[in-house]
Structures are given as C-alpha cells and as structure tokens.
Specification:
Glycosyltransferase, five-stranded mixed β-sheet, 3 domains, Glutaredoxin, four-stranded mixed β-sheet
C-alpha cells in the first residue's frame, strides 16, 4: 500500500518518477544530493531505471517499492535513486550495457547496485519480492548486498574493476569494411533464415514489429529485384495488421506480440512504434499499391493525431498497457459485453469478423486456460473499408472510450517528435494529404519554440512548460530527418537551412575525431563512466544510423561533399561490427543501399506552383527510395553552393544525376521518368 506521505520525487515532472512519489522508499532523483549522501554515509546506491508505461516496472513497484519491509531495508542500508530512462537515455544506455555484461541480457525495470562513485558492481532487471522458483527475491538480495558491502569490500572492488574493464572496451574503433555487396547479402540472408513463413515476422516469440528491418528488405528488393525480400515484407505487414498486436477498434500498434501468431500483444503503445509503422506501411503501399497498407498508415495517423497529440501540436510519448491494475483490460472484451453493443445483424458480422468467442480467444500462459476475454483480430485479409465495418468499429470505439483509460505519458521527447514529424511529412507527400504535412509542421514549430536552449542547442524533454536536459545525438538525428522530410514535402528551403545547421551542430558536439562515428552524449552532457556510441538498431534505429541516412540526403541537397566524407567515416567507425553482424544495424545498411544507388533530380522551375506536378506524382506513386528531389523556385532561393541552373528553351528543365554523375539537362519529362523507373 502506498504511503500517505510523499518522498522527493513529488517535485519531479516525469510521470514515471511521480508514480513512485508516494512509495515508502526514500527515493532520490539522479542528483548530487543523492551522491553526497552515499559518500558521507558510506552506503551503496540502489539505482532503479524504468519508464511510465512499463508493465513489469508496475509489478515491481506493487510487490516491492510499496512494501514497508523493502522500504525499511532500502532506507537503512542504501541510497535509492529512481531514473526515467526516457528522460535520461544516456544513463539507461550505460547501465543497461552493464546489466548485459553481467547477465547476458537486460530489460526494464533495470535494477543496479553502485558504489558512491556511480560504479556498478551488481545488476539485474525485475526481482520478485520474495525468493521463489530458483529466482532470488528482492528482500534477500538487499540483505545479501548489504552484508557484502559491510564485510567483503574487496569482492565488490573486484567486481567493479572487471565491469569497468569490459565497459572500457565497448566503444568500437574504426575498421575497414567488407565489400558492400557481401554485407548486404549477409543482412538479407540473416532475415531470410529467421523468417516465419507461416505467420510472418522473424524468429519465434516474442515478436517485435521492427519496421526498420522491413525497410531494409524493401530497399534490398528494389535494388536487387529480389522477390523473396518483398514477399517477407508483405507477409509480415499483413499478419501484423490483422493480428491482435494491432488495435482493431482504436487503431495504432501495441508494443510487441507475446506469441508467434501476432495475437496476444504486450498492450502498451509507444509513439516510436506508430511513427516507424506509418513509414513502412506507406513505403509498402508505394511499392505494392495494396490499399490495406495505405489504410493502415492512415489509421495509425488518425490514432496519433487524435490520442497522442497535445493542443500545441507536440506528440506524447506513450500509453500504458495497464488500466485498473490489469494489463490489457482497456483493449479486451467479454463476449456478452461485445455482443450487447450491436444489433442482431451487426452481431453476426462482428463476432465472425473480429473472432469473438464465448470462452475468449487467448490463453493465460500460467494456467494454460482461456481467460474469457477477447482480443479483436482478423484471420483473413477482408475488406476493412466497407461501410458496415466502419460503422461497427465506430460503435465499439465509442463504447470503449467510456472505460477507464490507461495512463498516457504526456512528456514530449525531441527525438520521438522528430521521428513522427518525418513520418507524417513523408505520408502527407505520398498520399497527397496536406493535413498530415501541416501537423508535422506544427510539431516542428513546437520543438523550435520550446526545445531549443538560449544557445540554440536542442534540449531533450518538455513537460508542463519545462524544457530540460541537454540534447543527445538521437535528438539531433531524428530532428534532422524530420526537417529533411518537411523540406521534400513543402520545398520550403527554411527547413533545409535548419537541417544543415543541426547537422553541423551534431558534428561539432558528438563526432569522434579519433575513430569516427557519433557519441551518444556530447561534451556538454553530464560526464558519466565513459562516452558511449550506439550503432545497434534495436526498438528504433540508432542515432548513428539515422544520421548516416541524412548525410546521404544532405550531400545531394547541398552538393557539399563533406557529408559524403562523414558518411563513409561513420561506416568505417562501425566496421568491425558491420563485418560480423551487419543485420544488427539494418537501418545503417539501408543507408548503404541508398548511397550505392543514389539518384538526384533537380527540377529548375519558375514561380508557377503547378509546374512539376507530373514528375511529383510519378515520384509519389513509385517507390524510389534513392531519389532526392529538389525544386528550385525563384521565390525560395537555395543555399550557397548550389551553382547556377538555367531553364532551357524557357521551359521547365530537369537535371538528373545518378551514381554521382549528371546527365544532360532536358525538357522531356518522359525521358526523366524512364531514367527514374
């Protein structure tokens, strides 16, 4: 039971920290006050890292952090610090790496024990309150570590030294890479081997959407005419859209599927999943013209704009999996409840369409019995745009809205907003939907007005009028991507200017002059155990991968070859990892494909906004990921260095460059289209 008195976290704005503000644990935020206490009282630090929509974080809070027994142990023998991983991804990255070194795996809640100097000596994830099933309980763990701290400091010192040695070896050094074709084939073979031909996706369970892996396969298919790669993407996208991982009533994707069939999700909804899924479904529509893919992208956008957007146009971070203390309660349906909302005719359609059963349609894993609840899902690729289906979904949605909603994490993160800006601008361009582009512009305006410091540097987090935390490389990377997509969708050169300025700032703040690549934190961020770099494309593409993508684009947009130089140095900085496991950086490999096949189209026009409509539509209708389109309009001068481009014969003139060499300018749009397609 929660204490009636609050702890220091009551003064924080993070929803995650505020969730623990009434725990009996004497929590500190990450602060010098906490470290001074640890030093002065010679106590080890218990560091707990999580986020507001993390289901197992909630479980550990209920079991342990609301327990007076646990609180007594923590308060007497430790200094307890609570960190929101989404506010401090730099801390999360370094200490998660520690957990992976110690245990071979990681996750949240992340639980670590540190010396007063912030050095880790023990780590884990979720611990039950009491020991059971061969797993040590948190109470026993606290007693054991307290005893070791008091009587066996040499053992702790040895652990610290060993871990710090491992951490010191984690920053990769530059290395030449294998032939690009070999790396790309190796990446494709990895996904091909792991592909689930029956249900789509990769591996067994759990299954994550990982849209950046699918983006790689689309580009690989396009560049090599590999039909197998395309089939894997199509199969996976359809299976996910029809499954329980997709919210069939309110739209948007849940975090991941706990089973092989995409039926039972982990129910939290993350902004980053929505953004990346908008992108992959839009790209897949370009390539296949399957209306289901377009509809899915548009439904995700509807969800994001309706449920995840502030009145000022910024995007919130996540929605919880739990409501009323039960995971998935908001999203699941009892048979009679579902049936009671519809007339007899609609019942027959909806029960079959959404696979609603009296006994329920998914298993409780512990008891291996049906739960009695239903997750709406589809078993066939039926017509979802049917008016009857739309009406039924609307009725069910309105009823569901009356339930107690899961917690919405309303903090605004710069990197995730940049990601959503990118996807909205892209989808708006492809679907010819100006409202999507305007939403992206509004969010970009919010970031510019609220998340730039006085020095014109990006900040990381905004909540309740407060912007804090010096930006990380991901903030710069994703905002650059967003601005570049806005430029391509509006041809407003102001967005190009801003992206150039941000890229140059990122190079200044994060670039490793010795080995290449971008550090996660700048020299202006808090000094931690070491400066880490991230190349692994996990839940989202890493900052290095996204910057590589944008370096390609900026080189074409600005004709500045320095961006090409940085691109290849970045690739080399991760050469050792790419040679061994290129599939672990699939988005980076996508950038490699785009660099190898890069085409630039420069259309020189006058002030007539209708000029280039044909070429623009052709680009929208076809999947040409390597293409960079620049429209020079006399009313929007381009940056310095673009050179002089003239109209031939007083008509719209097209300049096409492929593979770093330019063709002769032409007035013939068919000639251009033939070259592009």
């Amino acid at each position: 039971m929660q204490s009636q008195t609050h702890n220091r976290l009551i003064n924080e704005k993070s929803p995650y920290l505020l969730q623990h503000a009434y725990n009996p644990v004497d929590w500190y935020p990450w602060s010098e006050e906490a470290f001074h206490k640890a030093v002065n009282e010679n106590k080890p630090i218990f560091l707990s890292i999580g986020y507001s929509t993390c289901h197992w974080c909630h479980v550990m809070e209920r079991e342990s952090f609301e327990s007076d027994e646990v609180a007594s142990l923590l308060n007497e023998h430790f200094v307890a610090i609570k960190v929101d991983r989404e506010e401090r991804p730099d801390l999360d990255h370094i200490y998660m790496l520690t957990c992976q070194i110690i245990n071979g795996n990681g996750g949240w809640p992340l639980s670590l024990f540190l010396t007063p100097n912030k050095e880790p000596f023990y780590a884990g994830t979720y611990f039950p309150r009491t020991s059971k099933y061969g797993r040590i309980g948190f109470v026993d763990l606290l007693k054991s570590i307290s005893a070791t701290w008091s009587s066996k400091k040499d053992q702790i010192t040895a652990n610290v030294n060993q871990i710090m040695e491992y951490l010191g070896n984690e920053v990769p050094t530059s290395s030449s890479i294998t032939d690009a074709e070999i790396l790309l084939q190796k990446t494709f073979s990895h996904f091909s081997t792991r592909f689930d031909s029956e249900y789509g996706g990769f591996g067994e369970r759990p299954k994550f959407p990982s849209p950046h892996n699918l983006m790689f396969l689309l580009r690989y298919s396009k560049s090599t005419s590999n039909d197998e790669a395309l089939k894997m993407v199509v199969k996976t996208l359809k299976a996910m859209r029809l499954g329980g991982i997709y919210d069939q009533i309110g739209f948007g994707f849940h975090r991941y599927s706990t089973d092989r069939e995409w039926l039972v999700p982990h129910f939290e909804k993350m902004l980053y999943d929505q953004a990346m899924m908008i992108r992959i479904y839009t790209e897949a529509y370009q390539l296949t013209k399957d209306p289901l893919f377009k509809q899915t992208a548009e439904e995700i956008i509807l969800y994001a704009l309706r449920d995840m957007t502030s009145s000022e146009g910024a995007f919130y971070t996540a929605e919880d999996a739990d409501s009323e203390g039960i995971e998935g309660k908001f999203y699941t349906w009892e048979f009679d409840e579902f049936k009671s909302q519809l007339n007899e005719e609609d019942q027959k359609i909806a029960m079959s369409f959404f696979n609603i059963r009296k006994e329920g349609n998914f298993l409780d894993e512990s008891s291996r019995t049906m739960t009695g609840a239903n997750i709406p899902h589809l078993t066939e690729d039926k017509l979802l745009s049917d008016e009857t289906t739309k009406r039924i979904i609307s009725i069910l949605y309105e009823y569901r809205e009356k339930r107690i909603h899961p917690l919405k994490d309303q903090k605004v993160l710069t990197d995730l907003n940049g990601m959503m800006i990118s996807s909205l601008a892209f989808a708006g361009r492809i679907f010819n939907n100006a409202s999507y582009i305007k939403a992206a512009e509004k969010a970009a305006g919010f970031i510019e007005n609220n998340l730039f410091s006085r020095k014109n540097d990006l900040l990381h987090r905004y909540k309740d009028g407060e912007a804090i935390q010096t930006g990380f490389v991901d903030d710069y990377a994703y905002m650059i991507w967003g601005l570049l997509e806005l430029f391509q969708s509006t041809m407003n050169t102001e967005y190009l200017h801003r992206s150039v300025n941000l890229m140059d700032a990122a190079i200044e703040k994060f670039w490793d002059d010795k080995h290449g690549g971008f550090f996660f934190a700048s020299i202006e961020n808090e000094t931690l155990l070491f400066r880490s770099k991230e190349y692994y494309d996990g839940a989202i593409p890493s900052g290095n991968s996204v910057i590589a993508y944008s370096l390609n684009k900026l080189s074409s947009f600005t004709f500045d070859t320095k961006y090409d130089d940085y691109f290849f140095k970045l690739i080399s900085s991760n050469g050792e990892m790419l040679n061994k496991s290129p599939f672990a950086s699939s988005f980076l490999m996508s950038s490699f494909i785009e660099n190898e096949n890069r085409m630039e189209l420069l259309a020189v026009v006058d002030n007539d906004n209708r000029v280039n409509e044909n070429i623009s539509n052709a680009i929208k209708e076809n999947f040409i990921p390597y293409l960079v389109l620049r429209v020079i309009d006399q009313s929007h001068p381009m940056p310095d260095g673009f050179g002089e481009y003239k109209m031939l014969n007083g008509k719209t003139t097209y300049y096409l460059c492929k593979n770093h060499s330019c063709q002769s300018p032409t007035n013939d749009i068919e000639e251009v289209l033939n070259s592009l397609l």
